[in-house]
Amino acid sequence: MNVKIASVVFESTNAEELMKFWAALLAAPSAFNPESGWGAVVADNVTISTKPVQLQELPGLEKGSRVHLDIEVENLESATDKAVALGATIKRGPFGEAETGQYTVFADIDGNAFCLYTDPAGAHGEIIEAIRSGVIS
Fold first, then answer.
1. Which CATH code is given to the segment(s) 64-137?
2. Are 80 and 90 in contact (CB under 8 A)?
3. Residue 91: closest CA among 113, 65, 61
4. Which of 12, 22, 87, 121 is the most exposed place for a label (fewest CB within 10 A)?
5. Ramachandran region of residue 92, left (φ > 0), alpha (ψ -120 to 50) or beta?
6. What residues does each domain of the chain span?
7. How many Å separate Cα 39 from the centre of its chain?
8. What is the DSSP letter of 135?
9. 87 to each of 12, 80, 110, 129, how far by Cα in Å?
10. What is the DSSP string of 19-77?
11. pLDDT truncated to tens, each residue of the chain (137 aa)?
12. Quick check: do 1-54 and 64-137 share a fold?
């Protein structure tokens, strides 16, 4: 069986605005279908989709994201400025040191968590590459 992750989907009460936020933050191409309410942003090899949702209460669950995106940037300060200018809010941080890597936790315009981080030593990518190359399984 051939299985692949097609996209990361954010449910939103305003899918078009959320798609525009991610497209601007990632400087990536996007498209929105007003008939279906679905939008998509394609950045590198990852597709972020946005879809309309009717909010419902889920008893016992805390509000907020359970999954978040990690986005590697070259300069955390300028990336933070861009994210905030687009409407993101800083939840925590920044943490870490410039030499070893820093990160800040944000919420996008719809409250979804994401992190902007620097990784000058390449540590974050090491484990991913090890899995892809079969060193770790």
1. 3.10.180.10
2. yes
3. 113
4. 121
5. beta
6. 1-54, 64-137
7. 15
8. S
9. 15, 11, 9, 33
10. HHHHHHHHT--EEEETTTTEEEEEETTEEEEEEE------TTPPSS-SS-EEEE-S-HH
11. 665 667 788 878 788 899 899 999 999 999 888 887 888 898 877 888 877 654 444 455 455 556 778 898 989 999 999 999 999 999 999 988 878 889 999 999 988 888 998 988 776 666 667 766 776 54
12. no
Cα 6 from Cα 25, distance rounded (Å): 21
- Using the structure block, give the residue that is written with the tokens 């902007």: 116
We find that the CATH architecture of domain 1-54 is 2-Layer Sandwich (3.30)
- Are residues 114 and 106 in contact, defined by beta-carbon separation less than 8 angstroms? yes
User: Which residue is listed with tokens 């040191």?
Assistant: 97
Longest dimension (CA), the chain: 48
